Amino acid sequence: MRDIGVCIEPFYQGMAFGQKLEKIKALGFTSYEFWFHDKIFTGDTLIDEMKDFSKIAELNASLGLRTNDFVLNHPDGGIIAALINRNEKQKILDKLKYMIDLAHQIGCKKFISGSGNKITGLSQKNAIDAMIDALGDIGEVCQKHGMEIILEPFNSRVDHPDYFLDNPQVAVDVVKAVGNDHVKILYDIYHMQIMYGNILDFVRSKLTYIGHFHIAGVPGRHEPIHNELNYPFILDSIDAMGYQGSYGLEYWPTMDSDESLKKTMEHLAQGIKR
Q1: What is the DSSP letter of 88?
Q2: pLDDT digit string (tens) for 80-125?
Q3: What span, in angstroms and rounded, lies between the C-alpha atoms of 17 and 126?
Q4: How many domains does the chain divide into?
Q5: Average pLDDT estimate for 234-239
Q6: How far is C-alpha 162 from the chain's CA centre?
Q7: What is the CATH classification number for the domain harbouring 38?
Q8: CA geometry: angle at 99 spanning 19 and 167, to 5°?
Q9: Each residue of 237-256: pLDDT tens digit?
Q10: Count of CB atoms within 10 A of residue 10's CB?
Q11: What is the largest CA-CA distance in the chain?
Q12: What predicted TM-score, i.e. pTM, was given to this entire model?
C-alpha cells in the first residue's frame, strides 16, 4: 500500500501541532513529517518554539500516526550548520546525539539535511568534498543509532537562488562517495522538475540512492493536481520500480487545508485505480 504523508507546516495555519495531527488522521493519513524541532512556521516566518516531543509521542500512539522525518540542517545552513562548510561540521556532530534522542522519542528514523547556501570563494569541488566528509561522519553516527539522513537538492531558479546543491546528480555522486546505506537523497519532484526535468528516467536509474520523495505542483508549488506534471502516472511508475518508502506532500494549499488534501488524495488515487 502506497504511503503518502503530509509535511505538516504549510497546512492548518494557526492550529496547534496536536490539532494538525488530529486533522490529518481524520482524513485517513497515517504518516507525516515536519520541519524543525524548535521552530514553528506561522505562514510568514519561523519563530522559536520547542516542540513537545513527549506529547508528539503520545499523539502518535493514540492516533496511530508515524513521524517519517524532520529537519536536521536548514537548507541555507542557518540552523545548526552547513554541510559544505568544513569549519561547521563539528557543530552538527555535537548536536547529533541530542537530535537522535528526540527522533527516537517519537519513533522517527530519518533526518532531512540541506547542503547550505553557496559560500563566496569556496569552489564547487571543495564544497562537495566537505559534504562527503561531513556526511561520512554523520552517517556513521546515524547508522549506529538506527537513523538515516537524507540529503535534499533544491531548485535555485525560483525558490532558493543562493542554495548550493541544486543538481540531483551531484547529490547522488555525494551519496555514492559516502558509501553508507544510511545516507541517501530526498528527491523533491517539484524542485527537480524546475531544475532538470526528466523525472522518471532519473529516478529509474538512481532509485537505490533515494530515501524519500516530496510532491508539489509545478509551477507555483501548490496542489499537485492542475499542473504540468502527471502525478498519478509518476507515482505509479515509481511504485512499479520497486520503491516502498513514503511520499511527502509539501506544498502551499490554495484552499482550505482539508479540502486541499482531500482533492489531492483523490487525484493521486486515479493512478492506482487504472
Answers
A1: G
A2: 789 999 999 999 999 999 999 999 999 999 999 999 999 999 999 9
A3: 40
A4: 1
A5: 97
A6: 19
A7: 3.20.20.150
A8: 90
A9: 999 999 999 999 999 999 99
A10: 20
A11: 52
A12: 0.96
Of the candidates 170, 175, 166, the one whose C-alpha atom is nearest the C-alpha of residue 210 is 175
Which grid cell is 239? 511504485
Residue length of the chain: 274
Helix, strand, or coil (residue 256): coil
The grid coordinates of residue 238 equal: 515509481
What range defines the domain where residue 44 resides? Answer: 3-273
Q: Are 70 and 33 in contact (CB under 8 A)?
A: yes
Q: Facing residues of 3 across strands?
A: 246
With a CB cutoff of 8 Å and minimum separation 6, the contacts of 145 are 97, 100, 104
Q: How far apart are CA 8 and CA 13, in angstroms?
A: 10
Residue 274 scores a pLDDT above 60:
no
Is-cis flag, bond preceding 10, omega within 30?
A: no
> Cell 547542503 identifies what position?
115
Name which of 249, 248, 247 is nearest 260 in CA terms. 249
Q: Grid coordinates representing 149?
A: 539522513
Bridge partners (DSSP) listed for residue 7: 33
